[in-house]
Amino acid sequence: MGNCPHRQAGSGKDQRSLPKLTPEQVRKNGWLIISGNVYNPEPYLKQHPGGEDLLLGFAGADVTVEFETMRHSASANKTLERLLVGVFDESTQPDGESPAQLANMRPNLAKLMGSSSSSKPLPSLTGKREN
Questions:
Q1: pLDDT tens for residues 30-40?
Q2: How do residues 53-94 score in pLDDT, each as one tens digit?
């Protein structure tokens, strides 16, 4: 898995043109961090083979371990490239907090959704992105 496209920050995009995103931006927008890259899962929610609840359950977190645990197809990695919105700015991490600790800050999905309906997306994934 060491040669997966998500490991090559930006893959087909110019790394210098990608914005550096803070933990706050990742959390507010419900984005996902994989190997230091930040992805917006919203356009892919309905198509994800594991279901949208799986992605929404990880919204705002570093999911590198979870992503690498699953065997993803070449098609999945191509899709991931299209969802790339930036790179995670580790310099903005609070003292003593590592990027991996974002994995421990996963939101309570039912609480954020405000109901038990699994088809209602998180508000942070339905509006404009916050910077």
A1: 999 999 999 99
A2: 999 999 999 999 988 888 888 888 899 999 999 999 888 766
Both structure tokens of 120: 């209602």
**Tokens encoding 34:** 């994989």
Closest CA to 87 of 28, 32, 27, 41: 32
Structure tokens at 16: 């210098």
What gap in Å lies between CA 25 and CA 41, rounded to an integer? 14
Q: Which of 44, 61, 60, 63 is nearest to 52 (CA)?
A: 44
Of 27-31, 48-52, 90-94, the range with the lowest mean pLDDT is 90-94
SS3 at position 39: strand
Largest CA distance in the chain: 42
∠ at Cα 113 (107, 118), nearest 5°? 105
Integer Rg of the chain from CA: 14
